[in-house]
Amino acid sequence: MRTLLRGAVLVLATSVAPAQTALAQTWPERPVRFITSQAAGNATDIIARIVADQLATRIGQPVVVENRPGGGNVIGTQAAARAAPDGHTFFFATAAALVTDPYTFKTLPYDPMKDFVPVAKVAEVSFMIMANPKVPAKNLQELIAYAKSQPGKLTIATDGTRRFSGMVVAWLNKLAGIETLQVPYTAQRQGVQDAVAGTVDLIILAVPVARGLAANGQLRPIATTSLKRLADHPDVPAIAETFPDFDFTGWMLLAAPTGTPDAVLARVNRETEAIFRNPETLKKLNEMGFSTSGAGTLKDAQDYVNAQHKAWGRVVKEIGVQPE
To answer: Residue 323: its pLDDT value, please?
Structure first.
């Protein structure tokens, strides 16, 4: 009986391998979709289209970006999670969609950690704390001292107390022992306008937006949320220089609905890695203020999501964010 079982397993294994190889050779059989939970025209959408265009050239089929914004990422993420796992739909995911929403929503119509398989890392973006020039602080230490001298009076524009920048600010407040009053904005443009006008004292912005405002002197950079100083902003300290291990960046990652064939996952991972070896792609990302270390392996992508999920879980617990 054992011999028969071993023989059956061997037959199954040897039949699966050729099937996977054949699938990798015939895929894709039709256009591929990238679903994103972000609106058309924002940074995530632009990068998704850069990757989609280059992937289309490599696989010989169109790759269409489908925008499904709304509901705090829920609409787009749900659409991607429910897509057929046949290798023709991928989720161009953000950090919020995969690792913070599970902590800030009481219920979700999907499980981001179970319903998706991470395929390839795409890009990261750091954030900056920016100050209106009237704020008498030029670095993080001075800002902390000023905030302590006027508890609860400094205002900072964020995307909401339960969203990415809002939770970063709350975590910094806790570590520094300060009180800054968050002013949530649904439209970032209005928050920027108010920070420049001095209606709010501070704002936290992604580097692609922040650097233009810093260059023309409208806002003063105080610190970055990345683990190290940024190459194109060497004079702006990282928060981690004061609070070690403070490392919170926005990121994008290509994921697939769970059940997508392994051969397709491996193929897309390889093709994405090749895309990020293209100097033109790297140049475009750098010009936009994004960085990438390459797609990595499938395991790299999974390990990264797991680590980010754990890190954000700690932050949410420490700052006391209650799911809604």
So the answer is: 84
pLDDT at 53: 96
Burial annotation 131-162 (CB, 10 A radius, 16+ → b, else e): bbeebebebbeebbebbeeeeeebbbbbbeeb
Type of residue at 118:
P
pLDDT mean over 58-62: 97
Residue 267 parent element (H or E)? helix 262-275
Please classify residue 229 by burial: count the beta carbons closer than 10 Å to its beta carbon, then call 0-12 exposed, 13-18 middle and 19+ buried.
Answer: middle
Check if the beta carbon of residue 124 is closer than 8 Å to that of residue 291: yes
Q: pTM score > 0.85 for this model?
A: no
| Mean pLDDT within 284-297 | 88
Residue 8 pLDDT exceeds 70: no
Name the DSSP class of 98: I
Percent of the chain with pLDDT over 70: 92
Q: Write the pLDDT tens digit of every residue in 166-213.
A: 999 999 999 999 999 999 998 888 999 999 999 999 999 988 889 899
Phi, psi (degrees; rounded to nearest 5) at 17: -60, -50
Structural domains of the chain, with CATH: 2-125+250-319 (3.40.190.150), 127-241 (3.40.190.10)
**Residue 252: CB partners within 8 Å, gap ≥ 6?**
44, 47, 48, 92, 93, 94, 122, 123, 124
Beta strand 89-94 pairing with 250-257: antiparallel
